Amino acid sequence: MEVMGFFYKHNIHPYQECLRRQDALKSYAETVNLRVIYQEGYDLEGFIQNVVFRESNRCFYCYHDRLRCAALVAKRGKFDYFTSTLLYSKFQKHDMIKSIGESIGKKAGIPFYYTDFRIGWKQGIEESKQLGMYRQQYCGCIYSEKERYYSN
After folding, report:
1. Quick one: pLDDT at residue 117?
2. Cα–Cα distances in Å, from 93 out to 45, 49, 61?
3. pLDDT given for residue 150 in this prediction
4. Strand partners, 37
5. 101 contacts 92 by C-beta, under 8 angstroms
6. Cis? peptide before 14, omega within 30° of 0
7. Rounded to an integer, what is the distance from CA 115 to the centroid of its chain?
8. Range name among 67-71, 76-80, 137-141 with the lowest pLDDT average
């Protein structure tokens, strides 16, 4: 398959973290000749407004918005499928991602490509370390960033 990337950033907080991740992707994409579409803007307020008072279900909103944006970009670009790098992480909720992706795909008229990319998780970590890539320590949302440092 020929792959094109899409960098969604409204859920990555704080802004400096978003820039670190974007810079890491740009650098990597140049080395492997990966074309990437970068989302414009930075809607921190929109993300927070959509999850406030629903923090325990924030992943659903985040998955839905990310996948919806990816599907719209893929549809506009006349791609055959859309998918998500979320499917690479052993920390993400694959059943939820798959269900949301398939539902959005049907509504948008573009199929969601599901595969369990976790198979290459350890290899990917080793490769990223060898390449000296920036490695994030949390999913990106401000709530996850808090949980990383704060325990009850």
Report:
1. 94
2. 24, 22, 13
3. 87
4. 6
5. no
6. yes
7. 15
8. 137-141
List of residues 6+ apart from 77 with CB closer than 8 A:
4, 37
State residue 152's pLDDT score: 59
Domain around 113: 4-149
pTM for this model (two decimals): 0.93
33: left (phi over 0), alpha (psi -120 to 50) or beta: left
Q: Which residues of 94-119 are buried (b: 16+ CB within 10 A; e: fewer)?
A: eeebbebbeebbeebebbbbbeebee
Alpha-carbon span 64 to 60, nearest angstrom: 6
Between CA 119 and CA 123 the distance in angstroms is 9
Average pLDDT over residues 124-137: 94
- Name the pLDDT band for 43 (thresholds 50, 70, 90): very high
Distance between CA atoms of residues 82 and 67, nearest Å: 8
Angstrom distance (rounded) from CA 37 to CA 84: 14
How many domains is the chain built from? 1
Average pLDDT on 144-149 reads 90
What Cα–Cα distance (Å) separates residue 17 from each residue in 9, 112, 138? 10, 28, 10
